[in-house]
Amino acid sequence: MKPLVVLGDTLLDVDAEGTAERLCPEAPVPVVDLTARRRRPGGAGLAALLAARSAAEVVLITPVGDDEGGHALTGLLEPDVTVLPLPLRGTTVCKTRVRAGGQSLLRLDSGDGTAGTGPLPAAAREALAEAGAILVADYGRGLTRNPHVRRVLRECAGHTPVVWDPHPRGAQPVPGTGLVTPNLAEAGAVLAGYEDPAELAKLLRGHWLVDAVAITTGARGAVLADGLGETNVPVPAEARIPGHSAPDTCGAGDRFAAAVTAALLGGADVTEAVVTAVEAAARFVAAGGATALSTNDGPVADPQPPADAFGLADRIRTGGGRLIATGGCFDLLHPGHVSLLRQARALGDALVVCLNSDESVRALKGPGRPLVRDRDRARLLTALSFVDAVAVFDEPSPTAVLDRLRPHVWVKGGDYAAADLPERAVVQRHGGEVVLVPTVPGYSTSRLVAAAAGA
């Protein structure tokens, strides 16, 4: 399958989490005692990372600064996304949310980076020409105003599905774009005086000279206007947010745009793609929004040892959270493993890795394996910010350990078939589900071992 290409402005998002239990004596404002600092790609970077959940190969074309923020963004995106950097004028934009008790208190913005105005490099032009679908994630930093970029996108729109996620400070979509995905506020700002989403979507389709417009309306879903008329796409009941607390909707628009582009890449028509994207965005918000994709940037207080997988599982279930599990040998940890683990953690509140012991690996792979002892493999896995605990098992399959963990979701790579997994029955018996995620092509421990042997 051809790659999904994301083009747009990338930011660095930081969540400074803490507790607020007293007021500052100098002013009536809360004092936040920080307990964690987490970083993640924002803007087009977040859209690309989310697209990697649904597409096997994702390429991001984005301005990247030669500064600490730019280097951090590249590290956070790889190996899930191939980054083709463009010049950035100024410094990397960083948006820091200060949060306490799950609520945002304020946001601090820094950096002045904007996109350059020169032609696209050859590698970027080739990536766009060979794309199976293109997502333009405009965050108003100048990239979509570049006339060279607009000319290439207009050419691509003639033969490739192009989805445009607009921004109030960005340029309008190029004519011929396949689908534009504003939220209701963005749509109303373009054509003032109209409030009905269906009417707005229809009028914007003609205003922009595009094939279709899907206006997202938060918890109500989306309204699609295309050549066949207007279609209301509600959020399915099973994907709605439980409880009554205000959800963190950060990144919901990016999840919608990434999911709709991936669906078009897979051959869906526009209506099918919007239905898929509405459900994906709703589930994304219900699972905690963009916060779940963050990487710890410093020590995090944890009252229980992270290796206590079963204690962790009990705490997550008792607190009403969503427990994710995945498993494997993880002998010679490689980018394919990291991609799977990152995608798995994004599906819930905690990730437990069920790790084959040395004895189990030898039974499955032969006397020459594992190359790394289970104790060291477990230490490597728990060093990853998106792995919360490891449970080592001796049996050929993780069925017994899953019977104790009772995860809500069991994740495996897309090279498996759910029906062929022996652990599927035990997961479903406890009310869980099996989810297959895309794998990074070209990586496997066996292949690495063979290559090293032949070197």
* Separate helix tally: 15
Strand content: 25-35%
Helix content: 25-40%
How many individual domains? 2
Q: Whole-Å distance between the termini?
A: 30 Å
The low-confidence runs, each spanning 5 or more residues with pLDDT under 50, are 298-307
**How would you name the oligomeric state of the polypeptide chains in this document?**
single chain
Shape: globular
- CATH evolutionary superfamily of the largest domain: Ribokinase
Largest sheet: 6 strands, parallel
Please count the beta strands (DSSP E, at least 2 residues each): 21
Class from helix and strand fractions: alpha/beta
What strand line-up does the widest sheet have?
A: 5-4-1-10-11-12
What is the top-level CATH class of the largest domain? Alpha Beta
Task: Please characterize this protein's 3D structure.
The protein is globular, with a radius of gyration of 23 Å. The chain has a 6-stranded parallel sheet with strand order 5-4-1-10-11-12, sandwiched between helices. Strands 8-7-2-3-16 form a 5-stranded mixed sheet. The protein has a 5-stranded parallel sheet with strand order 19-18-17-20-21, with helices on both faces. α1 crosses α7 (252-265), α5 (184-190) packs across α6 (197-208) and α7 (252-265) runs antiparallel to α8. The chain has 2 domains: 4-291, Ribokinase (UDP-N-acetylmuramoyl-L-alanine:D-glutamate ligase); 304-454, Rossmann fold (3-Layer(aba) Sandwich), CATH 3.40.50. By secondary structure, the protein is of the alpha/beta class. β13 and β14 form a beta hairpin. It is built from 15 helices and 21 strands. The chain has helices at residues 44-51, 68-77, 122-129, 147-157, 184-190, 197-208, 252-265, 270-286, 309-318, 335-345, 358-365, 374-383, 399-405, 424-429, 445-454, and strands at residues 4-8, 10-23, 30-43, 58-63, 82-86, 88-89, 94-100, 103-110, 114-115, 133-137, 162-165, 179-180, 213-216, 222-226, 229-233, 295-296, 323-328, 350-356, 389-393, 409-413, 433-437.
